[in-house]
Predict the structure of Succinate dehydrogenase cytochrome b556 subunit.
Amino acid sequence: MKKKRPVNLDLSTIRFPLTAIASILHRISGIIIFLSIGALLWLLDLSLSSPKGFLQASLMMDNCIFKFFIWSMFSILSYHISSGIRHMMMDFDILGVTLQTGKFSAQISFLIASLLAILSGVLIW
Ligand code: HEM
């Protein structure tokens, strides 16, 4: 007998809810922060090694690509922290765990992260 099961392999028809996107981005941002810690520590070490090293680090900070990297790191960290605080507030039942509060708090964490990203952009450029 032929089985007639519903099959949905068209990935473009699958939509993630905002809460799922917020959660996935939080995990991805954590991994990116972890991977970039080495580069940031190297830069800190260079700037503290000697006056010449400090000058080298300062010159690097004038480079547009490097500025973009630092801005990206600030923005990603901003998102991880704002979303992390949201997670902890949900864990401690401060925000409540309904779908509505989940969606609203995800929007607020995106908003806070965006504002911090703009602020860090202004400070870096
Ligand atoms: C060096 C800085 C940090 C790194 C490398 C980092 C890395 C990560 C990674 C990789 C995860 C995902 C773990 C998983 O889903 O299995 C995670 C989760 C988490 N992070 Fe961070 N994190 C950092 C800073 C922070 C800060 C400052 C906060 C505070 C707001 C925070 C709050 C959280 C929370 C609450 C979770 C768990 C989220 C959940 O329950 O799904 N993290 N972090």
